[in-house]
Design brief:
Layout lengths: L21 H15 L14 H6 L3 H5 L5 H21 L1 H9 L8 H21 L4 H29 L4 H25 L6
Helix pairs in contact: 4-5, 4-6, 5-6, 6-7, 7-8
Length: about 200
Amino acid sequence: MGKKKPPSMAAKSHPPLMKKHSQTDLVSRLKTRKILGVGGEDDDGEVHRSKISQMLGNEIKFALREPVGLRLWILLSAVGFTAVALMALAFPSQLYEVVFEEEQTATSISIRLYGGALLSLSLILWNGLYTAEKVILQWTLLSEACYFAIQFVVTSITLVELGLFSNSAILLLLSRLLFLIITLSYYYHLGRRNRKM
């Protein structure tokens, strides 16, 4: 019985090497990129060159189109929030007297709680000052805008209920309205997409 020997590697003939045409290679790459989901525009209008940049995000372009004065606004807000929070925590009666121009009759615990909440919000602002991520800056500005809107509404209702319309209270209301408009303006500009010319 003769066993048949496997053909040796040297005796095996290989098909001739074929070069890929650049056209089919290009089509193949485009199909691969389409399957991976890269190369097209995402919701923000950015074109990602790789799956990694798509997953991690590309914040380099964002740094170039940050609204003018945004960092200064966040710094001023953080300093202001911190100062008012510390004053509410340390001197609640004096803060009440400055705003409503009358002596405080209720307990100071509510003003101290307000100071604690404001201090917590100021920590978010301090964090927003040092971040480069667009989403974090947007949420920081949205938090600040919500605070100004709520404070405007609550202070307005309180002033109407008490029948107090002191100069400092009206100034507080107008300043909160102005701060709300500035904050929403920055929020709007961060959310806009830059159109290519």
